[in-house]
Structure formats: structure tokens, C-alpha cells
Amino acid sequence: MVTIELYGVARLRAGREVIEVDARSLGDALVALGAACPALERVIVAGGRLAPGWLVALNGAQITADLATPLGEGDVVVLVSADAGG
User: Within a domain: residue 86?
Assistant: First the structure.
């Protein structure tokens, strides 16, 4: 399982802080996130892609929007607005 942590607008729209999904890549995780939280579809994950202005932090070490980024068991994806943190 991959854990997706939500903050700010994403958390408010989804109505929860964390979602666990089965995914082998960032693209798979975003598709699963959109299916699990339809309120995020079109606005943030946009058909399995990150909408403009959104990024992910992978395991606290890598910022990416590359859908091909591989994910493994226990990875943590943090969905953040690109303007968060000023």
C-alpha cells in the first residue's frame, strides 16, 4: 500500500487526511486517489494527472509531478499546492 497524505484544500475537499491505495507509480496513485475521492477529480488530480499548481513530495525527499515515478510498498506521497510555503 501507498499512503497519500492530504493537506490544505485537498484535505478540505476530500474530507479526510490520509488515503491508502495500491499503486506502482505516481500516475496509478493519482488515478486511485481520484476514484477514492471524486471531489479531488477534475480540480486536483484531473484524470490521473496533477492539475497545474499541484506537486507531490515522495517520502519527504523528492518533489515531483512525473507520473512515471515508481512507488513501492510503504511509500508516502504528500499532495501539496505548489504555492504552499510561500
Answer: no
